[in-house]
């Protein structure tokens, strides 16, 4: 899971990126707020064994 704060069309967004051990993108998410509930759900879903 990686996170960055980026500017998208003049608005600042948090960019969450989930990648596997081979470097392939599993899922990404753009959120207005840090630790948005969608981002936390994505984080929990990806980190389950």
Automatic annotation (TrEMBL):
InterPro entries according to UniProt: DDE_dom (IPR032874)
Pfam families: DDE_Tnp_IS240 (PF13610)
Domain DDE: 2-46
Protein name listed in UniProt: DDE domain-containing protein
């Amino acid at each position: 899971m990686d996170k960055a704060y980026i500017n998208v069309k003049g608005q600042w967004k948090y960019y969450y990126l989930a990648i596997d051990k081979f470097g392939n993108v599993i899922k990404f998410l753009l959120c207005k707020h840090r630790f948005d509930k969608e981002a936390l759900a994505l984080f929990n879903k990806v980190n389950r064994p």
